[in-house]
Amino acid sequence: MAKISINLATGSLQKEEIIVGIDLGTTNSLIAFIDPDKKPKVINDTGKGILVPSIIHFNTAGEIVVGNEAREFLISDPANTIFSVKRLLGRSYKDVAEHLDTFSYQLIDDDDDSLVKIRAGNKFYTPIELSAEILKELKARAEHALKTPVNRAVITVPAYFNDSQRQATRDAGRLAGLNVLRILNEPTAASLAYGIGLDPTEEKTIAVYDLGGGTFDVSILSIQNGIFEVLSTNGNTFLGGDDFDRAIVHYWIEKNKLDSVAAKADPVLMQQLRLKAEEAKKALSSQNLFNEKLGEIWCTLDKQTFELLIEAKVTETLNSCKQAMADAKLSVAEIDEVILVGGSTRSPYVKAKVAQFFGRQPHDQINPDEVVALGAAIQADILAGNRSDVLLLDITPLSLGIETMGGLMDVIIPRNAKVPTKAGRQYTTSIDGQVNMKISVYQGERDLVQENRKLAEFELRGIPSMPAGLPKVDINFILNADGILTVQAIELRSGVKQEIAVKPSYGLTDDTVEKMLTDSITHAKTDVEQRMFIEAKGEGEQLVYTADRFIERNGNILTPEELTHTKLHITALKDALNGGNKDIILKKADELNEFTRPFAERLMDMAVSQSMKGKKID
Ligand code: AMP
Question: Cβ contacts of residue 260 below 8 Å, gap of 6+?
Answer without folding.
Answer: 250, 253, 254
